[in-house]
UniProtKB/TrEMBL annotation:
Species whose genome carries this gene: Chlamydomonas eustigma
Domain FAS1 as annotated: residue spans: 27-173
PROSITE patterns: FAS1
Any one annotated GO CC term: extracellular space
Signal peptide start-end: 1-17
Name of the featured protein: FAS1 domain-containing protein
């Protein structure tokens, strides 16, 4: 009986230990707040245009995810290479939802966890992972995130948004849409 209780206690601790690494501190900001204050206007518009569940998650400071947040310049470049316009992209709810889901991981990944060989990170798109890599050492290290055929550079890492973390990136990661 005692053994069973101890095992239960031990496994309760293990569950805690297995939790993804949490950000060092948390605040009451939401992902949307961080995106607005970072001038990520197309990302904000995209989050509003996507599936409502996504908007609910990014406006809730209890949400614990990692967001790779493309800059406006990154969105403009992606819009050009997809031969579309911002309005047309945002009007395509299934497409913009899929693209955004590819930028959100259900686990917390801080930039210090990036490695030379890469850390595989799942996304909200089933079966489509990202690889977070690091090049260089110490303060000169640069962090990259690769998704399908796109490799983006992290421009601003580890911005805390409530229980979530946001990394600003220089390219839109286009998932395998086939
Ligand atoms: C956002 O834009 C405003 C106005 O142009 C500027 O003052 C501010 O520094 C910008 N913030 C960031 C994080 O780039
Ligand atoms: C915010 O997220 C938490 C955790 O997922 C959830 O329990 C809560 O109901 C959400 N709040 C709102 C206002 O949706
Ligand atoms: C966009 O248009 C260019 C030129 O017409 C074409 O070469 C390219 O394959 C198109 N790209 C997509 C994603 O449709």
């Amino acid at each position: 009986m005692l053994t069973v209780l101890m095992l239960a206690l031990v496994s309760a601790f293990c569950v805690n230990a297995d939790k993804p690494t949490s950000p060092p501190a948390s605040n009451t900001l939401t992902i949307a707040d961080v995106a607005v204050s970072g001038n990520l206007t197309i990302l904000v518009a995209a989050l509003k245009a996507a599936d409502g569940k996504l908007l609910a998650a990014v406006t809730n400071s209890s949400t614990a995810v990692t967001v790779f947040a493309p800059t406006d310049a990154a969105f403009q470049a992606a819009i050009t290479s997809l031969n579309t316009t911002a309005a047309a992209l945002l009007a395509n709810k299934p497409l913009i939802t899929k693209i955004l889901e590819f930028h959100i991981s259900p686990s917390i990944v801080m930039s210090k966890e990036a490695t030379m060989h890469g850390v595989k990170v799942s996304t909200l798109l089933p079966g489509q992972d990202l690889l977070v890599t690091k090049k260089g050492l110490g303060s000169k290290a640069k962090v990259f995130v690769t998704g399908y055929k796109t490799k983006a550079k992290v421009l601003k890492a580890d911005m805390l948004a409530g229980a979530s973390v946001v990394h600003v990136i220089d390219k839109v990661l286009i998932p395998n849409l086939s």
